Amino acid sequence: MTYEARIETPSAQPVPAPMVAADELDLAHEDRASARRVWLIIAAAAVLLIALWFFVHRNDASGDAGDVAQQAATVTVVVPGRATIAGAINATGTLAARRDEPIGSVGEGGQVVDVRVEAGDWVRQGQVLAVIDRSVQNQQQASQAAQVQVAVADARLAQANLERALKLVERGFISKADIDRLTATRDAANARVNVARATLGQLQAQAARLNIVAPSDGLVLERRVERGQVVGGGAGILFRLARGGELELQARLSETDLAALSPGVSAEVTPVGSPRSFTGQVWQISPVIDATTRQGTARIALAYAPELRPGGFASVVIRAGTVVAPKLPESAILSDNAGSYVYVVGPGNKVVRRPVKTGVVTADGIAVVEGLTGTERVVLRAGGFLQPGETVNPQLAAAAKQPR
Question: Where does the YknX-like C-terminal permuted SH3-like domain lie (predicted)?
């Protein structure tokens, strides 16, 4: 039995496209979308930057010259004008006696038996301050007084002998030579009287020098001797006296301040610890400047007052005259090796360096005696950070804006 095998070949069917191609297409679409988003972000940022740039430059363009000036350094300026400035020099110094008189023993010395004054007492010229034992000197004076009497008696006898001889010479009983001899004897006796009296006076003077006396009227500043103490000539100072009670302040000043003073200038002295001030005047200016400190001494005379104690410390304000000049705060005045200067705001708000010469220093400013007329706009502070020619934004100081 024969079998035929039939093989039916299926008709050709369309083959579907691979799935990979579809995935790639989706990825391409997504890449294009991402790229668009990136470009959109970049474009937005660019637009924002451009808008910001235009905003900034639009503000600059809309401003005037004053807005440009605001970008420069802002400085405070002042127009000082001119004023009458009372000169005042502030200093400190030491109180002392104007004429300090040290007193010691000028005699041969001895033991002190009496002290009659204390520190702080007022004394008169010739007043006894202390007494030294003079028992030996008194005996010497008594002995010499007796010698004077002996010499006087001898002189009387010699005079009587001469007078009798003169009566006899007329009768020829005594020669002329005898008269000459008796006359010489009388003259020698009289001379011995004078010598004895001079010696007695010397002893009395020596005894008187044992008294320590005041050489002038004044105030006793120190007492350095006590009863029972043994003193002698050249033993040192026993008392210190302020002649007339006059005191002074010895103020140390710089060369510049000394040059501004003259004798007779008034001053106000305030001792440390005292609320009271005392008026005095400069009576002497030091002719010598200390080579080390570059200072000299102004001596200010003061009348006596209990609050003024020699050796104490005091401050003084010396009236050094008046000047008419611009006055600036200390912050406005600068200095370097070339000297003092200020910064002036000139045309176009440009900074200009102006050399100046300063004068009187007061509590509220310094006088500028050269370099300014008073109408300039002077930089009040921060001048050390400026440079000549720099453009600034000047602002008038508040105090200068207030009406006078």
Answer: 327-393
